[in-house]
Amino acid sequence: MSDNALYTDLSGYYDLLCADISYQAQSHGVHRLNQIFGNGGKQLLDLACGTGPHIQHFYGQGYECTGLDINQPMLDLAQQRCPEAHFQLGNMCAFEAPQTYDLITCFLYSIHYSGDRQSLQSCIQSVHKALKTGGVFCFNSVDKNHIDNRLSAKHSVEHDGSVFSFGSSWYYHGEGEKQTLKLSIEKTDAEKTQRWTDEHPMVALSFIALQTLLSPYFDVHIFEHEYEKIVSWNALSGNAIFLCVKK
Ligand SMILES: C[S@@+](CC[C@H](N)C(=O)[O-])C[C@H]1O[C@@H](n2cnc3c(N)ncnc32)[C@H](O)[C@@H]1O
């Protein structure tokens, strides 16, 4: 199954899969960072927006919102969730923005879907071009050198008479610039259990390498992966929020 196929086939379950994520806290945290580092504007583009949960919160904070995603079924759900926003089908590694934005976001490590260094570079260039003067690019990322292949995140929810169990984990085999996001989904009802497993190939970089890619275009600030408070990255953790101000 390709990564796009998973989101197509399971788009209806995507919000259940993410039921333990505090989208409000994430959106509010990035809104605060934008207030501090940004240009004061409120035109937002959310890359790899999925079903639009962040857009819903940014809209509530007074932003004019656009979401871009490569998967139409995810965008259809986003449009239902947030009829006031604009949605665009496209690849974040090669998009032409019809306008410029004050804030461009990419949540849930989706920047890694760029796949390889060259595509990530072209994503960074597209973002730079699509930002207004002093605009902010904000995303979260994982450092390949800090991936622990033994760790996984799991949670279960009940929905419509079934129990859904979701698992996700990173895998990095120790060299090169590829890592994998492994996903597993189990749906159990009174009669049977169905299972899906999937592996998404993603670009793997150290934070230092990522900072080097971004630095020609942006002033780069790196923060600990916390949305409720603003804490500078301690240069040890493998999860971080990148806040990049357009040069
Ligand atoms: C893990 S989901 C994240 C969705 C949303 N940002 C969230 O936080 O819930 C990843 C999303 O990235 C999208 N995606 C994957 N590759 C992409 C690409 N090259 N360009 C745009 N979207 C992409 C998928 O279709 C999917 O909706």
UniProtKB/TrEMBL annotation:
Q: Which Gene3D superfamilies match?
A: CAC2371-like domains, Vaccinia Virus protein VP39
Methyltransferase domain ranges (all copies): 45-135
The UniProt entry's GO biological process terms, in alphabetical order, are:
methylation
Residue ranges the record marks as coiled coil:
none
Presence of the UniProt keyword Transferase in the record: yes
For the keyword Electron transport, the answer is: no
| A GO MF label | methyltransferase activity
Check the record and name the Pfam families matching this protein. Answer: Methyltransf_25
- Alphabetically ordered keywords of this record: Methyltransferase, Transferase
Protein name as catalogued: Class I SAM-dependent methyltransferase
